[in-house]
Amino acid sequence: MSVAIITGASKGLGRALAEALAARGWDLVLDARTAEVLQETAAGLRSYGTRVKAVPGDVTDAGHRAELVAAAWRLGGVDLLVSNASALGVEPLIRLDELPLEGLRRALEVNVVAALGLVQEALPLLRASGTGAVITVSSDAAAEAYETWGGYGASKAALDHLAAVLGEEESGLRIWAVDPGDMATDLYAAAVPDDDDPRPMPAGVVPAFLRLLDERPASGRYGAPALLEGRR
After folding, report:
1. Does the record bear Lyase in its keywords (predicted)?
2. Which residues of the chain have a pLDDT value below 50?
3. Cα–Cα distance for residue pair 110/56, rounded to 1 Å
4. pLDDT digits (tens, 9 = 90+) for 2-27
C-alpha cells in the first residue's frame, strides 16, 4: 500500500485529496489543528477500507511533525507528502502598510518553515520509497500582485522557491508546487469575507493532483487549471 501524509486535511482541498487517495487504496496520515473535525474526517475515509491515522496538532511544532512521520512509518513509510496546511497571517487580509509583522511571521512559519521542517523529517522515508513525491500547495498570489495578499503571497512565493531548489537537490524524488486556482474554501472566505462570487469546489481540482501522481512529470511548478485541461 502507498502511504501519504496530508497536512490541513480536515476540510477543503486537503480533505478532498485525502478522499480521492483513500478511494485508490492509499493509507493516510492526516493532520489538522481541530481534533474533533479531523477525527470525523478520518472516520469517514476509513469506509474505503484503508488505514487512516488522524494526528491533530500544529505543523509549526517539531514534535508534531515527528509524530506525523512516525505514524506514516508504522503504516509502511512515506510515498507522498502533501503540504497543504496554510495560514493567512491576518484575517481578513489587509494592505501591507497595516499588516502586523507578527501576522507575517505566522504565515511564514506555517507556510514555509513548517513545510520544510516536515520535508526534512520525512526525507529518509521519501528517499527509501522509490516513488517518493512532495506536493506543496501554492497560490496564484505567489506569482501575481494582488492588493492585500502581500504577506500570504510572499510566504507562498518563498515556498515555491524552496520546492524548486528541493527538486534540484533531490533528483530521486518528484517535488511539485501546485497552484490549485480559485476554490471555495474556508481559507478564502476568511481572507476576503465580502467576496461572495461563486468558486469551484476543491473536489473539482483534485484530478489535477491525481494526474501528477499518475504521470509523474518532472519536478516543478504546475497550475491545476492547465493540468485539468490536459496541458502542463
Report:
1. no
2. none
3. 15
4. 999 999 999 999 999 999 999 999 99
Q: What angle do CA 192, 95, 162 make, to 5 degrees?
A: 85
Q: First-to-last CA distance in the chain?
A: 28
Q: Which backbone phi and psi does 226 adopt, to 5 degrees?
A: -65, -40
Instruction: Give yes or no for a contact between 12 and 201, defined as CB atoms under 8 angstroms apart.
Output: no
- Joined grid coordinates for residue 21: 487517495
Active-site residue, selected from the candidate residues 11, 53, 86, 152: 152
Examine the residue annotation and report whether 138 is marked as an active-site residue of this protein: yes
State the residue for C-alpha cell 499518475. 214
Strands (E), 180-231: 220-223
Say whether 146 is catalytic: no
Q: Which residue has the cell 505566522?
A: 106
Q: Which of 2, 86, 138, 219 is catalytic?
A: 138
11 is a catalytic site residue: no
Number of DSSP helices (H) and strands (E) in the chain, helices first: 9, 7
